[in-house]
Amino acid sequence: ADVSCELFYRNEEQGPVEAVFVFPVDPEAAVYAFEAHLGGTCIQAQLREKKQAQELYGDALAGGQSSFLLQQEGTKGDVFSCSLGNLPPGEEAALTLRYVCELPLEPDGAARYMLPAVLRPRYTPHGWDGEDVTQGVPRVPQGELPYTLSLSATLQSPHGIDRVLSNCSLTPLSYTAGNRTSAQVSLAEAPPWDRDVELLVYYTEPHKPSAMLEIGLPGAEPGSLMGDPAMMVTLLPSLPEAVLGQSSAGEFIFLLDRSGSMECPMDSRDRSPQRIDSAKETLVLLLKSLPLGCYFNIYSFGSQFESFYPQSVGYTQQTMAKSLQRVQQLQADLGGTEILAPLQAIYRSPCQDGHPRQLFVFTDGEVGNTQEVITEVQRHRGCFSFGIGEGASTALVKGIAQAAGGSAEFITGQDRMQPKALQSLKRALQPAMTRISLSWDLPPGMEAPLLPSPQWLEPRHPGLIPLTLCPWHRLPVHRLAAKSLLLELEGAMDTGSKGARRRVLETSLNSGVICSLTAYVGVDTERGQPVHGPLVRRDIPLIAGGAGNPLSLGKEKECWIGGSPGQGNGGSAGRAEGSLGQGDGSSTGRGSGGFPGQGQCSGGQGLGAVSGCLSPPPQDVAPGVWATVLAVVWLHSRALGQHNEWELLEAKAVAWLSECLEAANTLLGCSVDPAVFRL
Question: In the structure, what pLDDT confidence band is assigned to residue 593 with cuts at 50, 70 and 90?
Fold first, then answer.
């Protein structure tokens, strides 16, 4: 997505104003341009080393010149600040920043664009000496926010656009091409500032590969990142999923955030669940779906941390049931968000021989020492993270997952939790690939160093890819490549790598992509007279309780922001309706795979009600077997659209029924094949 954010201001005060606001940004987004329209003049900001940019901005203010500054706060990349100084009274200004980002895929194949709008104060652990800009931002109730938001999106895909969904009200999708390869959509009304704005784009033929080719930046040095052509290939093959064995080895560690902020609601809707409750529901589903023969343990943390067991225990019906009871009793009552200490304790604990360790983290991500946490996780492999609630820190949630070769999911108030949770578990259950080699042939005298090293390798799939020459002068593919390189180099810089700082600066300044060491600065040199009067600083407020995107100044302002996500590619599939939540399969299945055969029909429609219907079972059929057969039949007949939500539970149930046959063979000393049942 190629995004333009326009920030409009009007100074209604009696003297000049310096407006300073703080806003969230996806840490993987490449911010590559910043400009201002002041008094009919368009001023392009220049990317400079951060200290130099700050000095230039300060000198301009002291000299009575209007100036503007955009900088990344800290090293995490998910919080930016923008300052607009010496805006004269009665005048207006418009700032535009541009960034490009990749669109992640949802479990149902939708390409997800999110405009971050929620920025909560970060918790700073005891003894941490860093600064956190989010602590000083003023907060006001939602009704007193002096700004609004609007968003319009232009969508393009050579394979056609099917539909667009959102967590906010949208205008009808308007196709601008007869073959549905381009379309436009907008927000129907200004959304509340208690949630990030999300667009889910479904494409007609999601599994067709595509490629974009860009020529280099005119004037850039040949052989450099920006001087050479760049190509981005999108591959979304439709592959049959491997059948996961139900005796998979593994050690599964769950780390649950119980800090005070987890007591907050998921969003502002009436009766919205608390974040801790949504995290617990996700944890229960994962516990129910673990494979037989594995080991597990559960940690929780706040200002201190606790664990269910001194070390990981074997997964049985008894240990699962005991753990489920304890999970239901957990509350958000452990104070702060000290996540580093439990991580260190987990990694110090002895591993189970022959059982690769997989870590699942549930948090709202409000911490200040993000880089320390990522560095700790980076030393190990297998971390899957869940950001709970609106405004969860993308830098932390994504950072720890990427550092350990896992995946990150975000669960908000209106999301379906089940497919996201089980998608992560299925990834963790995939067998490890070892002894991987990669080779290629090149013409004599040519080298192609591989940066970075591959983390995932899949089987070869031949096919044709249509190539599109990208005419965009903004060079989004080059910017994404530069951002990827910057993230790698900044990680090396944090570990003390020699030369990393120099390479970070060179890459940022040459590509125009901002980083922790650079900032955009612009000065209005066209105004004939300096701006007179004492300069008053105005910090733009956010919503009290942790929401908002600051975009205004003065007492009663009309300020807004427009977003324009551009081209992206993603999958297409219908979103399943209904639920398999706590009252259905996720709370009735046994650890062994079977379903309990006790109780009477409850009259409900869910899986839990069906598996309890024991009247009338076939004659002499054990209640547990009957309940399990009923549950499997119900899943395949009434919940087929939610297959990815019950797949692991159903596989355990079928495996349990197979074990009944194996037990009969053992008892009778024979080896009857299941085919004799002619099912």
Answer: low
The tens digit of pLDDT for each residue in 274-304 reads 899 989 988 998 998 888 889 999 999 999 9
Sole residue written with tokens 């980076």: 378
Q: What is the DSSP string of 436-476?
A: --------TT-----SS--S-----------EEE---TT-H
The three-point CA angle 569-571-576 to 5° equals 145
Sheet containing 2-10, strands listed edge to edge, beginning at the edge strand earlier in sequence: 41-44, 30-38, 92-100, 2-10, 561-562
With residues binned 3-state (H G I as helix, E B as strand, rest as coil), the percentages for the chain, rounded to 5, are 25, 25, 50
Between CA 408 and CA 397 the distance in angstroms is: 6
Taking Cα atoms as reference points, which of 392, 343, 390 lies closest to residue 363? 392
Q: Kindly state the DSSP code that residue 137 receives in the 8-state scheme.
A: S
Helices (H), 33-192: 50-62
The residue among 153, 137, 133, 149 whose CA lies nearest residue 193 is 149
The owner of tokens 């005419």 is: 471
Q: 674: cis peptide before it, omega within 30°?
A: no
For 223, counting Cβ atoms within 10 Å of its Cβ (0-12 exposed, 13-18 middle, 19+ buried), the class is exposed
Indicate the pTM of the whole model: 0.66
Which burial class, exposed, middle or buried, applies to 4 when counting CB atoms under 10 A from its CB (0-12, 13-18, 19+)? middle
Contact 8, 38 (CB under 8 A): no
CA angle 468-470-471, nearest 5°?
Answer: 135
CA 358 to chain CA centroid, nearest Å = 19
Beta bridge partners of 111: 105, 201
Q: Determine phi and psi for 582, rounding to 5 degrees.
A: -60, -30
What the block records as the tokens of 624 is 């547990």
Number of continuous H segments (helices) and E segments (strands) in the chain: 13, 29
Cα–Cα distance between 174 and 153 in angstroms, integer? 11
CA 650 vs. chain centroid, Å, equals 28
What torsion do the CA atoms of 569, 570, 571, 577 make, to the nearest 10 degrees? Answer: -140
Beta bridge partners of 228: none
How far does CA 277 lie from the centroid of its chain? 20
> Taking Cα atoms as reference points, which of 563, 535, 565, 568 lies closest to residue 549?
563
Cα angle at 189 between 197 and 149, to 5 degrees? 55
Beta bridge pairs of residue 314: 295
* Residue pLDDT, tens place only, 336-372: 888 999 999 999 998 888 888 999 999 987 677 888 8
Alpha helices, H only, 18-134: 50-62
Structural domains in the chain, sorted by start: 2-234+494-562 (no CATH), 251-428 (3.40.50.410), 585-677 (no CATH)
For residue 447, give Cα distances in angstroms to 206, 232, 440, 441, 450.
34, 20, 10, 10, 10
How many C-alpha atoms does 11 have within 13 Å on its Cβ side? 25
Structure tokens at 519: 């900032």
Half-sphere exposure of 660 (CA within 13 A, CB side): 15
- Quick one: pLDDT band at residue 652, thresholds 50, 70, 90? confident
Residues 565, 114: contact at Cβ < 8 Å? no
CB atoms within 10 A of CB 254: 23
Residue 568's nearest CA partner among 103, 39, 84, 70 is: 103
Q: From 73, 79, 70, 82, select the one nearest 32 (Cα to Cα).
A: 70
Strand segments (E) across 39-91: 41-44, 46-49, 67-72, 79-87
The Cα–Cα gap between 663 and 502 comes to 66
